[in-house]
Amino acid sequence: MRRNEKRLVAEIKAGDNKAFEELVQKYQKRIYMIAYGILKNESDAYDATQEVFLKVFKYIKNFKENSTLYTWMYKITKNVSIDMYRKKKNLSPTEYQDYHSKNPDVYADTIHHKVVSPLEQAEKNELSVKMAKAMEKLSEDHKKILRLREFDGLSYSEIAELLEISQGTVMSRLHHARNNLKKYLKEYEN
Amino acid sequence: MKCIDEIKLSAYIDGELSDKEMAEIAEHLNTCSVCADKVKEYEELSENTFQYFKNIENSFELPELLNDIKERLKNTDEITPEHTVYNNKIIDFPKNEKNNEENIFKEESVFEKIYKFAPAIISIAAIIMISFILFSENPKNNVTANKSDKVTVDSLEYSKFKAMIYKTKEKNKTVIWLFDDNSDEDNGDDDSI
Question: What pTM, to 2 d.p., does this model score?
Answer without folding.
Answer: 0.62
